[in-house]
Hints:
This protein has helices spanning 6-16, 37-56, 72-78, 80-83, 152-157, 159-166, 211-228, 276-285, 311-322, 358-369, 383-393, 403-408, 429-436; strands spanning 19-21, 33-35, 61-64, 69-70, 85-90, 97-99, 125-128, 131-134, 144-147, 172-181, 196-206, 236-240, 252-260, 263-274, 291-293, 298-300, 303-310, 323-328, 331-336, 347-351, 375-377, 397-401, 410-415, 421-425. The protein contains 13 helices and 24 strands. 36% of the residues are buried. Helix 2 (37-56) crosses helix 9 and helix 3 (72-78) crosses helix 8 (276-285). By secondary structure, it is an alpha+beta fold. 30% of the residues lie in helices and 30% in strands. The longest helix is centred in the first third of the chain and has 20 residues, at 37-56. The chain has two domains: 6-70 and 150-310, 2-Layer Sandwich (BirA Bifunctional Protein, domain 2), CATH 3.30.930.10; 345-436, Anticodon-binding domain (Rossmann fold, 3-Layer(aba) Sandwich). It is globular, with a radius of gyration of 25 Å.
Amino acid sequence: MAAPDLDDIVRLCKQRGFVFPSAEIYGGFRSTYDYGPLGALMLRNVKNLWWRTMVQLRHDVVGLDAAILSSPRIWEASGHLANFTDPLVDCRSCNERWRADHLPAGDDGVVRCPNCASTDLTEARAFNMMFKTHVGPVEDGANEGYLRPETAQGHFVNFSNVLQTSRKKPPFGIAQVGKSFRNEITPGNFVFRTREFEQMELEFFVPPAEADEWFEYWCRERLEWYVRYGIARERLRLRHHDKEELSHYSAATTDIEFLFPWGWGELEGVANRTDYDLRAHSEASGVRLEYFDQATGESYMPYVIEPAAGATRTMMAFLIAAYDTDEVGGEARSVLRLHPDIAPYQVAVLPLSRKETLVPVAEEVLGLLQPVAMCDYDETQSIGRRYRRQDEIGTPLCVTVDFDSLDDRAVTIRDRDTTGQVRVPIDVLAAEVAARVGR
Ligand code: ATP
């Protein structure tokens, strides 16, 4: 499998409509990105797959969609106002700013500015990464609010609401997918680190005595998820945090890392948050966030195991892992070997020509397949070029309508990975496609 470099991925994303630089017509805007027609489909697929795995296929997890705009009291109690900081250093020579823990020392052990190589750097100071804003028309301190830097606190402040309405009891989880915002000092590596991004977070509430067991369970489950959807096991690893690296709320953290073109990077962190958050919010709000166990007649504060993944970062990892080049009929092709559940389109319907006689049959075929799978429809250029285009964007199946289709009421299914072709009657096409893309 060809390992792409980052430029290959950025180029593919731009040319084929996965990801565009935001506000490009104005020269871009500070490492923000927009997801184009294919990126919007693929990102949605990643989030839906996570939801399906974490909520739909389990009986012990319920969903939540909490507000992004949030009260300062939440972040004060959670410790983020005091602790959600990165160490910032300034270069006195070129005035660039860097995250101190991302600046490697040279062979001589000296740290230099990556921009101008000066060694004249300030001492590191704590920089809070939360975006502050004003809520309402008056811009004063009483109206301050924050864009959430993680989805997680929504789960904790709604703990009692969810417990009462869902009738769940520990061990049980609350899952949420949504945007988070961090004023990163050095965003970069395309969508790996951005200031606006999407997270997929589960807070799993357990009896304290079971916390270690569930921590191991979620590390295993989450690692397997990436493998199941197409990332080779050898490009993934688990990395345990030392005591010094642990977040302020965590008793243990293991990162699931992926081998990006520039080296290992985090896809997801699994943390044992203990009862840190429920306790902090109970103390700050005066509302006891506990579970009353009818069996023992006692109340207790559950521990929380949190698998927290990034949706945008994960989409990028799936793109990199799927990228491949090979040769078909003596010609080089580039192909995204995406899992059908992740590929933007599962099927492309391709009439052999734009002749009037073919179009009605092609449209009929499209209408039959659209309820089953996400379909592209393309009638321009030679069929060979259209196959290449679909290979490059990862479409697992092409369905070609040709002149024989008018007589035999059959079409050709072409497989992205093998390039093999089979003739299938239109009457059974929807069932055949559904079976092939796992619907
Ligand atoms: P990092 O060490 O890379 O800054 P983190 O440990 O602070 O990440 P978490 O707080 O554990 O990240 O967030 C959970 C997940 O959210 C990460 O594993 C990552 O996939 C995603 N994520 C975090 N920050 C960003 C970001 N700035 N851009 C894109 N995704 C992010």
